[in-house]
Amino acid sequence: MSDDPHRPAELTGDERTRLVERQATCPFIGSAVAQGKLPVRNHANDPLASIEDVRRLGNTGGGDLGEVLVLFASGNHAFMLGVSGKLDTPVPSGLFSLELPGSQGSHPGHSGILQGDPLTPGSGRLSQADFARLTSRARDGWIARSDVGRFIAENLVRDPKSKVDEKHIVGLLTGDAAELLGTAGSALKDRVFRSGDEARTTHRDIETRITKLMGEDNLVGSSGEFGLLFAFLDNRPDAQKVGDEPAVSVTDLTAMFVDKRLPDGWETWKKSRSDWVRHTVGLLTSAFQEYRRLKRAN
C-alpha cells in the first residue's frame, strides 16, 4: 500500500491496460477506468478507487443508481491484496478494491466473458466465445431481457460449483414458498410495477432482500449484475424493445465489454436504483424459469 492510498495512482499505458483487462472485470467499472472517468488510487499492483467517485459516476445524468454501485463496491470489494496474495486485507475507509476476480462478488456460474477462474485475482481476460453466446441471442441488434435471463441460467447450469437456492428465490419472487411449482415472479412483478408510495416501499424492501441474497445465491447475484447494465442503459434516448420487453443493444455491449468504453452520451440520461430493482426482478424471473427447465431436462 502506498503512504496515501487515496492518492491517484500514476499508471503507464500498459499498467492501465492490464488493470482494465485482468482486474477491473466489470463492463461499467472497466470502461470508466479505461477512459479515465474513474480515478485509480493507491498503485498499479493493488489498485483502489473511491466510493464517492463511483457514486458520482452512477448518479451522472440524474437519478440515484450510484447508490446501488456503492452497495456493490462496499459489499463485494472491501478487501485488497495482502501479503498472502489473497484478497484478505480490509481496504482503507472510503475506498474499494479494483481487483474484482477473487473478490466476494466474483462467483461460480458467472458469464465467462470478462474473467476466468472466479477465485483467482488477476484472472480477467476477454472471451469472445462467451460474448458471442450472449450476443447471438440478439434480434435486429437488440437482446431482450428474458434472453439475458436465459443466458444467466445457462451459465449456472454449465458450472457445477454454482449455488442456487430455489426455495429462497421463490420466496423472494412470490412471498410464498408453497408456490415452488407455480409460475414464479407474477406476484412480485405486480407490486414492483406499480407507482406511488406503496411501490417505493416495495422497491426498498425488495432491494434489501436482493442485496442480502446476492452473495448467497449465484442466480440472484448474476441477475443483480446484469440488472445494473439494464438500469444503466434503460433511459438512453434511442432505447428499443424486443416485443414488449426492455432490451440492450449489441452495440452498447460491444462498447463496454470489448472496446472498454462507455456508450456515447451516457452522461445525459437518468439512471435510477428503482430501475435496477425492476430489471433485476425481471431477470430473476426469466433466469429462474429457464434454470428449472434446464435442470429438469438434465
Tell me what you see in this structure.
The protein has 298 residues and is mainly α. The protein folds into two domains: 126 residues, no CATH class; 172 residues, no CATH class. The protein contains twelve helices and eight strands. It has a three-stranded antiparallel β-sheet. Strands 6-8-7 form a three-stranded antiparallel β-sheet. Strand 1 and strand 2 form a beta hairpin. Helix 1 packs antiparallel against helix 2, helix 4 crosses helix 12 and helix 9 packs across helix 10.
For the largest beta-sheet, the strand count, sense and barrel status come to: 3 strands, antiparallel
First-last Cα distance? 48 Å
User: How many E strands?
Assistant: 8
Overall morphology:
globular
Name the helicity range.
40-55%
Which parts are unreliable, with pLDDT below 50 for 5 consecutive residues or more? 176-185
SSE ordering: HHEEHHEEEHEHHHHHEEHH
Radius of gyration: 18 Å
Helix run count: 12
- Give me the side-by-side strand order of the main sheet: 1-2-5
Structural class call reads mainly alpha
Structural domain count: 2
> Overall pLDDT, averaged?
90
How much of the residues is beta strand, in percent?
A: 5-15%
